[in-house]
Every structure is written in C-alpha cells, then in structure tokens.
From TrEMBL:
GO terms for cellular component: nucleus. It is an enzyme of class 2 (transferase). One of its GO terms (biological process) is double-strand break repair via nonhomologous end joining. This is DNA polymerase.
Length: 584
C-alpha cells in the first residue's frame, strides 16, 4: 500500500480544536460548500480494514492520493477574470499508524468490534468516522464535519470534539448566507461538484419572493436565534389550534433566512420589505434586535399548559387536538399518558403481523390509537436522534433486504437527512424501480410484501400505519399524497451484545414515473412543499404533490425523469435540497 511521506509535527491547527472544547459539528450552508478548511499539514487518515472488502479498501486508500488532483481541478487559484477564488490547501495523507492519525475511518459500528483493532482509550481521543466522510471530504474539497459521519454512536461527542474540520480559506471568512455564493462569477459554478448547490442556480433565487420554493433556505442562517424564538410562538399557536396565526409565524420563520444578520440599520430599509412581516412581527423582530429575546416567547416557555401540550405532541400520533383533549382530562405529564393508555415504558406487545394483514381495513381511530401506544412505550428511544452514518446504514440494510424479494429497486433517503441535517428524528426512504417500463407493476403491492419480509427478519418490530396505492387524483384536495407507504419501527441487526435503539422508519413506494415528485415532496421541508403546491396552483395551474404533477384544466399527467425536471415543469429555478430548510 503506497503510504505518503511522513508529516511534520502537529501544527497550530490542532490547538484550535482544543480552544473549543464544546465544538459542535458545523452545519452545511451553501457558502460552506465552497469555502473550506485551510491548513498546511495534511490530515492523517487511518483506515481500519475490518468489514471493508479489499477492493473498497484500496479505492479508499486511493482517494487520499486522488485528493491532490481533484483539488487542482476544483479550486484553481484564479478564476477566468484573474480574480482570486477560495483555495483550500486541505490535504490528506494515509497513515499506517492509528496513534498518529487525525481521523480514523471505519465501517465498524460496534464498540466490541472496534476494540479488536483500536484500543478503546485511544479511540476516544480520535475522530472516528465512516468511509463516507472520506468520500465526501474529497468530493467537496474540505474535511466534512465528523459528527455527521460518526461511525459509532457512543463516540459521537468525542468524534465531534476531535474533528479537524477547520474553517477559513485564504479568501478570508465569507459573508454568511447564499448571497456570498451568488455574488461569484458564473464561471465559479464549473468548479463546484455537480451535486453541490450551484452558484448559477442560487443567483436566480430571490429572498424577497412570496414563495419559499423561490428562496434559498440553508440549514443554519444568520438569524437562527430570532427564528428559534419565533418558532416557540408558532408552536404555541399550533398547540392551541390557532392555525391562521400559526401559519403567519411559519411564514415569518421561512423568510428569516435573509442572508444577513438582521440589524437596526437594515430593519427599515430591507427587512420591512420582506413578505409576510407585518407590523406585529416587525415589532417582535425589533424587540429581538434590542434585547436578544422576545417577551412573548419567554411567557410561553414558562407556561405549564404549553409545556404539557408540547410534551404530548412529541408522541407520534398525538396532534394538537388530541393533546388538548388529554389536557382537559387533567393529564399533565407523559407518565400520566402512560397510565391513561395503559402502556408500560419500553414494552409494547403489538401484533405486528396482524396489523400488516389488516392494512386498509382499519378505522382511522384504531390506527391513531396504535401509533400513540407504540410511540409512548418507545419514546425514550424515539427521542434519541439518528446520526447520518446510522441513517445510511439503515438504508443499506433495507435495500439489501429488498433485493432479496424484488431485484432492480433503487432508493433515496429523503426528509431532513437529504436537507443536510446532521441528526434526524426519523428516517424516510423513497423506493422505486430502475426499469421505466416495467417498474410500476413491480412497485404496486410491494410495500405490504416488503414490510412483511422485514418483520419476519426481525428488522421491523412495529407498524404504525400501512397504506395502499391510489391513483394520483388531479381533483383530490387531500393534504398529502396517495403513494403506498409504511410508517414503521425498525431496529438494525446486531450481534446480540448490545441493545439496538428502536428507530422510526418511513418507507414510501413510488412508480418510476413519480419517483422524482415523491423525492421532492418527501425531502420537504414542510413549508417548502406547501409553497411548491401553492406555486404550482397559483402560478402554473398545475397540481403538485408527492404522487405526481398534473395540469388542472385537463388532468394531463407529467412524468419528470430527474429532480431538476420537477422544478422545470413547474417553471421554477432548481433549489438544491440543502437550501430547502424553510422550517426551523
Ligand atoms: P426529522 O424531524 O425527521 O428530522 O425532519 P423531517 O424529515 O423534515 O420531518 P418528517 O416528519 O420526517 O417529514 C419529512 C417530509 O415528508 C416533510 O417535509 C413532510 C413530508 N411528509 C410527512 N408526511 C407525509 C405524507 O404523508 N406524505 C407526503 N408526501 N409527505 C409527507 O411528514
Ligand atoms: Ca424524517
Ligand atoms: Ca418521517
């Protein structure tokens, strides 16, 4: 195996990590994709060979070598006009000694298994990541935030802390928000990897649009503090069933990814011109600028009614209406709910198979009641968020099981994961078939058949809801879609040495002709999808939902072959998934 030259002693950059002991993973923003880490010393990468076949192992090793070539191609020092662009001298070096590695790459996810290769105490002092970290770091030309790729849940925090993702490029610290990227010359877009947000697209989005599907909404924006405060008021309105007011706050939140920090000086000039910020909301924004908080939010947070209702709605199946009903019965805590629903924490002996067979014949009340009982019993597991590495592993396991009963299927993990969230509350996977002609026939009925199989294999332990297929109906007014889907509880296979965490898994089945509409719909975010539907209706006379696109006046159906085509059909500029975070 060709190892590179030994590197010099650890440089200043490592101390920068120590200066921030509570460092959290940095979150992707469009700016960060092209801004990068700067360091003169190559990052040393040690690859644990266990669970990696020899072909993959050598291709991972080669990635560290290919790094230089890719960097040359991706980041020339000058653009066509001779202007300096971001150049990051991030470099990788393969290390044969785990002791001196900055990052340890492994396909192992269990403590016991890793301990056979790396001393546990040593492991705790390293960033331990999945092979995907290496692939993405090379792809994006910067060391990715390790926390998003933590190989072992138990070492997540150590991995975040030890991660050598160092901000700053020779172009200085970039202005936050998409305006930074959009101000670049179009030629820069050629240097960005194809699946990253393209500056040419971003430059066509406008933050003053009424529709969030025409704006760029990164995961974290300069006004995150304000957004969090507004979100509590939105939640309170939602809990009280005040839907119109709730939507006003949701809209205010969705326009707040304004690309600059909101200050006194831009409040009158620019912010007051943003859509949906009426007098009341502007006065709240002003209050936030002055005091760093909003009085109404503080009142909400201390309200015991809000606390109870908010806790109740963390349980899948309990919406605001049910939460208020339970509160009116005198229930105040989740323990009260356990008693009320006769649930024992951690235990729910549900007849999963019977649920699968009864799918489609149950009343809505029965479905909801079952969801609540399962979610209540497993709430301690469900409250643990899912790191990206585990999301990817779940998708791998699901797809290899699917291959056993139906060959030629494909999948995309959607939801918050696809929008770049480092941690997800549940996993959403859209599944389709590669064959455009015969695929629809193979997908029909597959949901039930597959869930039965996953249950037999011990991977799906509970089914909250399982629905069959209905044609996309251009006249349908229903909120969501008509795809086959299963809302399940899933556990990864283990070797019995460690208890696996129960995870919520949503499986959505789409024929090839509606695969991309399903992917766009289920990628979200909720407000983004809401505005897609609204834009399609108001501006194009189309109906859009996850199960298809149709023209309203003649019900003609459209079958996009790519995600970009979905946007093109609706007359929209393509918005990269990581810029669709229009909710908090
Ligand atoms: P997280 O809380 O899971 O981390 O974030 P998320 O992935 O954004 O939330 P989610 O509740 O899993 O929802 C994923 C997206 O799917 C979201 O934008 C809304 C959308 N969605 C549902 N239910 C349904 C549904 O029944 N049909 C369709 N088409 N979309 C749905 O939540
Ligand atoms: Ca999700
Ligand atoms: Ca979900």
């Amino acid at each position: 195996m060709p190892f590179k030259r030994p590197s010099p002693a650890r440089s200043e950059s490592s101390s920068s990590v120590e200066e921030h002991p509570s460092k959290r993973p940095r979150l992707s923003s469009p700016t960060e994709i092209i801004s990068n880490a700067s360091n003169t010393r190559p990052l040393k990468v040690y690859i644990v060979p266990a669970k990696i076949d020899s072909k993959t192992f050598s291709s991972l090793c080669r990635l560290t070598e290919r790094r230089d070539a890719i960097l040359e191609k991706v980041s020339p020092k000058k653009d066509g006009n001779g202007t300096e662009v971001d150049v990051c001298d991030f470099d990788l070096e393969l290390s044969g000694d785990v002791h001196e590695a900055d990052v340890v790459v492994t396909a192992v996810h269990m403590k016991q298994r890793l301990e056979r290769h790396v001393d546990w105490e040593l492991a705790k002092s390293k960033a331990i990541v999945t092979p995907q970290w290496l692939e993405d770091s090379v792809k994006y030309g910067r060391p990715m935030p390790c926390g998003d790729y933590a190989a072992l849940n138990v070492l997540h925090d150590e991995t975040v802390h030890e991660c050598p993702d160092r901000p700053s490029c020779n172009s200085g610290s970039p202005e936050p928000g998409p305006s930074h990227t959009s101000s670049r010359s179009p030629s820069t877009s050629k240097q960005i990897p194809e699946d990253a947000p393209q500056p040419a697209d971003i430059s066509l989005l406008t933050h003053t649009s009424r529709y969030c599907c025409c704006r760029a909404s990164p995961l974290v924006c300069p006004n995150q503090g304000l957004i969090k405060q507004l979100d509590k008021i939105k939640e309170a309105r939602n809990l009280e069933g005040e839907e119109r007011s709730m939507l006003s706050y949701a809209r205010a939140i969705s326009v707040s990814p304004f690309p600059h920090v909101i200050t006194h000086s831009n409040l009158k000039r620019e912010i007051s011109k943003l859509p949906y910020l009426g007098e009341k909301l502007l006065s709240m924004v002003e209050e936030f600028i002055k005091t760093g908080q909003i009085n109404e939010t503080q009142g909400i947070l201390t309200s015991s009614r809000f606390q109870a209702l908010s806790a109740f709605t963390t349980i899948h199946g309990i919406g605001p209406h049910t939460a208020r009903k339970l509160y009116n019965l005198g229930l105040r805590t989740l323990e009260d709910l356990e008693r009320y629903y006769e649930v024992e924490p951690g235990r729910c002996g549900q007849e999963t198979l019977a649920v699968i067979e009864a799918a489609g014949r149950e009343s809505d009340e029965a479905i909801v009641e079952r969801s609540i009982k399962v979610a209540l019993a497993l709430r301690h597991d469900f409250s643990q968020t899912i790191p990206r590495a585990e999301v990817e592993e779940m998708n791998r396991v699901v797809m290899s099981e699917l291959e056993q009963i139906e060959q030629g299927c494909k999948s995309i993990v959607v939801g918050g994961y696809r929008r770049g969230k480092p941690q997800s509350n549940d996993v959403d996977i859209v599944i389709s078939h590669r064959n455009w002609e015969s695929g629809a026939g193979k997908i029909k009925g597959l949901c039930k058949r597959f869930v039965r199989r996953l249950h037999e294999r011990g991977l799906v332990t509970h089914v909250m809801h399982l629905s069959g297929f209905h044609e996309h109906n251009a006249l349908r007014t229903h909120h969501w879609d008509s795809l086959e889907k299963a809302l399940t509880v899933f556990v990864l296979p283990g070797d019995g040495s460690q208890r696996r965490v129960y995870r919520r898994l949503d499986l959505i089945f789409a024929a090839p002709q509606v695969f991309w509409t399903a992917v766009v719909g289920w990628t979200g975010s909720t407000m983004f999808q809401r505005d897609l539907r609204l834009y399609a209706k108001q501006q194009k006379g189309f109906k859009f939902d996850s199960s298809g696109i149709s023209r309203r006046h003649d019900s003609k159906l459209f079958f996009p072959k790519t995600e970009r085509e979905v946007f093109e059909l609706l007359g929209l500029v393509y918005v990269h998934p990581t810029l669709r975070n229009a909710d908090i």
